[in-house]
Amino acid sequence: MNNKQNCSKKFDKNESSFAAKQIQLTQCLLRDGNQSLRKPLNFAEKDQLFRLFALDGYKFIEIGFPTANDREFKSCQHLAALSLNPIVNPNSTGISVLTRSIKDDLARSWDAVKDGMKPEITMIYGVNPEQIEKVYKTTLSVMNEKVLHAIEYIKNLMQSNPKATVRVAFEHFFDVPPENISYIIGAIKSCIATGADSIVFANTVERTTPEYVAKILKKVVPEVRMFNPDVSIGIHLHNDKGRAMETALKAIKSGIDRFDVSTYGIGERQGGNLHAENFIRVAEDDYNIRTGINRETMYHAGEHLRFMLRKNEAPLKSPNETYSGIHVHGNSSILGLYDPVDPELLKISQREEFIFTSQSGGLRLWQILESFGHQPPADLNKTKKLTKIITNYVADIEDKGSTVPNNELIKYYRNLINNK
Predict the structure, then answer these.
(1) 216-241: per-residue pLDDT in tens?
(2) What is the DSSP letter of 273?
(3) Which residue, 123, 240, 251, 285, could crosslink 206 as a Cys pair with Cβ 3.0–4.6 Å?
């Protein structure tokens, strides 16, 4: 049988149901992908990958989470400066970072990227009612007011760079009860009116079906477009059920024009993120949707990453496994908030042995220390200081190409407190 004929399936490349014929892509491997690795990428590795991604034609490259640790901040600052080099960044690709909607975090994040190419600050706005109550310990209306004040604050800082933009990320957006959608639409409009340049709906854990996502988007997107047709509307998909590709295609039909993708789909938990290479190939080849990506350089970057990650530990993860500080904190407040699979079904899971990386945050660190009989100091400032010292120590070890097992972490902590 002729393999070429056998594999050629006729697609309607001019299918009218696709609302967008041109979409924009954000490469999120250096942030979302990186925080999912047992050994996060070091300074040099992030530099190498940024140079490769900058050739690919992405609208933005998400370069990190500047408030995670000092090494991450310096890395983001370095990549921001590098983005201005026209030889490194011939497409003038913008840079983006993720941060909480807290003044101190916003200020530090802005400090990391303020001099970069089209710097974008993506602010987290949690909209899941249970998350707001138990993680943020507030109400939806108070949460909205905090985010609006945060937008005003960061827009004021951005006056020094007219090309800077604010993106609001609505976390757990598709977990919002249907009866709350009208309120959320109002919240979205208020963010745009206050100064948000773009918004992104995060399917933070893939619990819903592609059909449900499309149903919600068909309610929300037209309302946002009528309110402000110039605002970019994006989606951030995880692939816990293996349906991110299907969801992405339905999102295009629903009017979404920007997609967060990750090389080889590397991201949180076993499922990861929307697979960049596969999505681009399907969108362009099967549906004639333009992405602006240079596939030759894209595959070169992917091969470089694949070789780089051969040295990374634990390539196979539990369905629920996460090293991200934000996710660790959320799961501690609401059991299963970031878990696509019921932990009871797994029987054995990452909960049996916590692992700490430079991306994991203070809560995970003290979970490990407490399991070895060490309680955090009563003085909160002392706890924060110890957390920062230990996180930077772990980051330095990662930069040298290694990781810190728990026994070494405990040993370092004991030496630290005994020498004070």
Answers:
(1) 999 999 999 999 999 999 999 988 88
(2) B
(3) 240
